[in-house]
Amino acid sequence: MAGMDEASLVADLKASLHDAGSVFADDDSDFQRHLALAALDLGRKVPRILSSELALEADVAVYDAPSDLIRPVSHRWGAAAIRRRNPWDRGWPGRLPRLTAEGDAAEGRVLVLIPPPTADQITALGAALPYTYRAVHQVGDAEADTTVQPAHRGLLLLRAQAEAMKELAARNIAKPVQLRDGQGGAPKNGVPASLHAQLMDAFERGAA
Fold first, then answer.
1. Alpha-carbon 36 to chain mean position
2. What is the pLDDT of residues 56-103, one digit of tens each?
3. Average confidence (pLDDT) over 194-200
4. Are 35 and 3 in contact, with CB atoms under 8 Å apart?
5. Can you list the positions of beta strands (E) in 10-76?
């Protein structure tokens, strides 16, 4: 089975592009970028859902976010207590916080609980808040560090091909002397742009 490490994926991406691949950098950095962008976009169609938890502090709303977080999905803190009690019962936990993500100028993205948990809530429900979140896909140097499953290898390469065609189209627009093909008079960037659209259509269909 073909490998999921970056070197194996780069080799197959280069081979799939044939002569068009010669336009890109010899050090493979362009192909690595195509794969990285493809992995990021793959998360739209093949979500990567992970679990984590927050160590809660009373009246504290802002917490560190995982480095691979896209957005929180849900949390289960207090769910059992809500199911077992009514608002008029003793021990009703009150309004439970909603978990969101925000940007922070100093720390990047952070997780925010609105409203922050109270001391009474933490005493009743515990100081650990389990949650799930959508995480970014990545291509790693080693196969174990690549988060894309082998079943989606073809889809990843397809999206990377589309990224390469987009860059080829943009490159030719910046080189006006090469805009026209001497035989057909068609814009040279037209073929890569058309291929990009076709490849993206195939990606969207394949990931549906």
1. 10
2. 999 999 999 999 999 999 998 987 777 777 667 776 777 889 999 998
3. 88
4. no
5. 48-55, 62-64, 69-75
C-alpha–C-alpha distance, residues 32 and 74, integer Å: 33
Whether pLDDT at 18 is above 80: yes
Q: Hey, where are the domains in the chain? A: 6-46+139-206, 48-135
CB contact at 8 A, 192 and 165: yes
CB 59 within 8 A of CB 114: no
Taking the model in full, what pTM does it have? 0.79
Six-digit token pair at 141? Answer: 């140097």
C-alpha span between 192 and 167 (Å, rounded): 8
Peptide bond connecting 93 to the previous residue in cis, omega within 30 degrees of 0: no
